[in-house]
Amino acid sequence: MEDAIRSKITEALKPTSLDIFNDSHLHAHHKAMEGSTSKETHFRVYITSDAFKSKMQPARHRMVYGLLKEEMAREGGLHALQLQTRTPEEEEKKKAKEGAQAQA
């Protein structure tokens, strides 16, 4: 599942940064996961891409959900997806702010 997420996002969005965290082990005990044999159901994905320019967060998330609709629809597939989507400019501002806070 992680490979499919990485492949589809990389191909479609050409990210300058892509971090994928498999948090499935943290949710294995949840009632909704009873009987699931999949070990890849819950992910956090941080994407920095020019493809997000001039788009609000909901539109960015719809772009990613659209790319992963097959994985979400599959039995035992992607159950939860936490997204953080930024443009390269937004990422630079975040890093500059964090750097300024670290020096304060």
TrEMBL record:
Alphabetized InterPro entries for the sequence: BolA, BolA-like_sf
Biased composition range(s): Basic and acidic residues: 87-98
Pfam annotation, one family: BolA
Listed GO CC annotations: mitochondrial matrix
Sequence segments annotated as region (Disordered): 78-104
Family affiliation: Belongs to the BolA/IbaG family.
Protein name: Bola-like protein
